[in-house]
Design brief:
heterodimer; A: 452 residues; alpha/beta; Rossmann fold; Fumarate Reductase Iron-sulfur Protein, Chain B, domain 2; four-stranded mixed sheet; B: 273 residues; 2 domains; four-stranded parallel sheet; 13 helices
Chain lengths: 452, 273
């Protein structure tokens, strides 16, 4: 066993983890269903979201250039990064040019993907995560296990212990959520006021206006994008949307799908720089890092519609049991199972497309209608193709296909299967399930006996 | 449980036949459907080999309702396992073969007692395998939409819980058709399954490739089944039932898996064969 099955088996043994994640996903699942059910035009909204994203993906070349022009015209600087290393270098260079040794960050999966914090640390720059859950993950030297709730795998007691160990002035801390948040707030307030540079991701970037949008719930994003003198945004190239008006659709889809809120608490929008108001220097880093490869795949490219709401994680029966770390990527759950292999190359992650029972709950929940089961099956096809015909499973599958190719071969195989009655242990099956008894008469034998 | 006639003896064959014919005629006539259809059975290789009793039940049920059943013996496998595991090339060959075999059968409808195989034919054949499929109905769809019957005249005096399989819900969209059929069964004590729409963890080769996760999912499904106190867990797909039933059997839980068709085929006069 290697890859996902191995990591999953390890995660399944952690009973505390299963309890935490099971509880958290169940709660948010029910809430989401409730608020989604309130909108009579939810299906139309989903279709609109998918159509806007598809349109943007097919015109990415024009739209990114339009975005660059608008951002530049509004006083910002646009950088193009082919991969993680390039993106990290650009951010580090900006920091260094300003002599900054501390930056504040608003939760951004793109910079998790590029491992920006490590790259900055290597240049002597400390990055402070300011999203509460990201802070928890960072302080415990852990990695996120959920797109939206990176510390979903931790409970209050664990967080209290962590804060008492890592934060000043927490000698008397209880595990009351309010008190825990207050301790984090005191710590973060100092970081916000001291920081000279902020780093963010982007939920959307509007090509026609050059506007960047960040959706968050704690107000830390607002602080990070307004207080520092310099702001750097790292965004995947698939985040661009054509028109300002398109935001209307996503402002409805995203909050209900992610946090199960009717309206997003803090939506920050900015266009370039404004004299005397907010950061006076703005850099936008456009990150490819495998996205153009995914774009080239006619079936797989729909994964780039993803707006990172995490609804698919919360409804996934596999994710619910193994948590995010088993996917060994910043993108866990169903979206991770289709995005990671495409970004990194299928040959590096051949077990991920199989990390699903194809139950379809993710597709049903996805606000931009990504047909995740179909993409999984297509990626499986690519895995099979790259494995080659000599792989033992491939040999067995080819033999089975042959047995199904004529009635004679099939009926011969059925007679052989009946001999299997004496096999009591089937590897991979029998460890947890009894095998069915193989009947002495097939259906067709009965039919022939009674009907012809 | 066999119904007895006045003398306390088992009913004679003739009595049984008269009684059941009478009831079926009255129940179908009441629903305004007397058209006799010729229905081709797509048994699926899995049921043909491992669960022949389900196929026999479909035949018995449809004939009891007054329809003709034909079984195209050339059929083998629809290619679902190959397709879902990534063997699209092999699946395409099987899909083409399937379409050819069923095109030659002159039937009014094709029925399958497997929601996932029916879904593959209906959904994946045209979309991903480039094969124009014949029209296939899952059993509950055929009964309710095509034959216009909800009360099939079944009798099943047991405590039963129904697991809606993922593909029946999300690919075929059968909705509550199976439950409607079950509610009309006489004598049945139908109990709702908690968290019913949660996947049981079977998922074809997933059950083996990711057996630990599959087993964890199964554990929760079994707990839900046991919570209902049911004697029988039923579904529209024997593959999921083999997985759930295999787990229950390992636990010596005493709950039996049984395909929906077998419950619907059951009458006061006939025990399952
Ligand atoms: S794939 Fe869909 S459901 Fe999953 S995170 Fe992305 S947008 Fe949300």
């Amino acid at each position: 066993m290697k890859g996902f099955p191995k990591a999953a088996a390890k995660a399944l043994r952690d009973t505390q983890l299963r309890h935490n994640i099971g509880h958290a996903t169940r709660t948010i699942r029910e809430k989401r269903e409730h608020v989604v059910g309130e909108l009579p035009d939810w299906q139309e909204l989903r279709a609109a979201g998918a159509a806007i994203k598809d349109d943007a993906l097919l015109r990415l070349d024009e739209l990114l250039i339009e975005l660059e022009e608008r951002v530049t015209a509004a006083g910002g600087t646009v950088h193009w990064a082919r991969d993680a290393a390039e993106a990290n270098r650009i951010v580090g260079d900006v920091a260094q040019a300003h002599g900054v040794d501390e930056v504040v960050k608003v939760k951004s999966i793109a910079t998790e993907e590029t491992r920006l914090n490590d790259a900055l640390a290597a240049r002597g720059i400390r990055a402070w995560e300011t999203d509460l859950a990201e802070l928890i993950v960072q302080l415990s030297h852990d990695s996120p296990s959920h797109i939206l709730v990176p510390a979903i795998h931790k409970n209050r007691a664990e967080i209290r212990e962590l804060f008492m160990r890592e934060l000043d002035g927490t000698e008397e801390l209880s595990d009351d959520p309010g008190e825990l948040a207050e301790a984090a707030r005191r710590h973060l307030r100092r970081r916000f006021l001291d920081a000279k540079m902020g780093v963010s991701g982007a939920n959307f970037a509007v090509a026609e206006t050059g506007t960047i949008a960040v959706f968050e719930s704690e107000g830390n994003g607002r602080m990070c994008t307004t207080l520092p003198e310099t702001l750097v945004t790292v965004m995947g190239i698939e985040k661009v949307i054509p028109r300002w008006q398109d935001l209307e659709v996503f402002l409805q889809l995203l909050p209900r799908s992610s946090t199960a809120e009717r309206m997003n608490p803090y939506t920050s929008l900015w266009t370039g720089v404004h004299a005397g108001d907010g950061p006076q220097e703005f850099h936008l880093v456009l990150l490819d890092n495998g996205r153009t490869r995914a774009l080239a795949d006619g079936i797989g490219r729909q994964a780039l519609r993803c707006i990172r709401c995490s609804a698919c994680l919360n409804v996934c029966p596999v994710y619910e049991r193994v948590g995010g770390h088993a996917y060994e990527s910043v993108y866990p759950g169903p979206i991770g199972a289709i995005l990671t292999p495409q970004l990194e190359g299928i040959e590096k992650r051949p077990s991920l497309p199989y990390a699903s029972s194809l139950c379809g709950a993710c597709y049903e929940a996805c606000p931009v209608k990504i047909d995740i089961p179909t993409v999984l099956v297509e990626l499986r096809r690519q895995v099979v193709e790259s494995d080659g015909a000599l792989d033992p499973e491939h040999v067995a599958m080819a033999a089975a296909a042959k047995a199904f190719s004529t009635r004679r071969a099939y009926e011969r195989a059925q007679r052989l299967a009946k001999l299997g009655r004496f096999v009591k242990w089937i590897p991979g099956w029998s460890s947890s399930r009894d095998a069915p008894e193989i009947p002495g008469q097939t259906f067709r034998e009965w039919w022939r006996e009674t009907r012809s | 449980m066999l119904s007895r006639n006045g003398s306390g003896e088992a009913p004679t064959t003739a009595q049984v036949r008269i009684a059941s014919t009478f009831r079926i005629v009255s129940s179908t006539a009441a629903q305004g459907n007397v058209r006799r259809l010729r229905v081709a059975l797509f048994i699926t290789c899995f049921n043909d080999t491992l669960f022949p009793q389900t196929g026999r039940a479909v035949v018995r049920l449809l004939e009891r309702l007054g329809h003709e059943v034909v079984f195209p013996e050339e059929q083998t496998c629809c290619g679902q396992m190959h397709f879902n595991t990534g063997y699209a090339r092999e699946a395409r060959g099987l899909a083409e073969r399937f379409a050819r075999v069923f095109a030659e059968v002159h039937a009014d409808a094709i029925v399958s007692p497997s929601a996932s195989c029916a879904a593959l034919v209906r959904d994946a054949y045209p979309k991903w395998l480039g094969v124009e499929p014949p029209r296939v109905f899952e059993l509950s769809e055929l009964l309710i939409d095509e034959l216009g019957v909800v009360d099939v005249g079944a009798y099943f005096p047991h405590r039963v819980t129904y697991h809606p399989t993922c593909h029946s819900l999300r690919l075929l969209d059968v909705g509550d058709r199976p439950l409607k059929l079950l509610r009309a069964v006489r004598g049945i004590d139908l109990v709702e399954l908690p968290e019913a729409a949660e996947c049981c963890g079977f998922g074809g080769t997933f059950a083996v490739k990711n057996k630990d996760v599959s087993t964890a999912m199964l554990a929760d499904k079994m707990r839900a089944v046991l919570d209902t106190g049911a004697e029988i867990v039923t579904a529209g797909d024997n593959s999921c039932l083999m997985h759930i039933g295999g787990g229950l059997s390992r636990q010596r839980a005493g709950v039996k898996p049984m395909h929906l068709a077998e419950i619907l085929a059951h009458t006061e006069e006939e025990l399952p064969r």
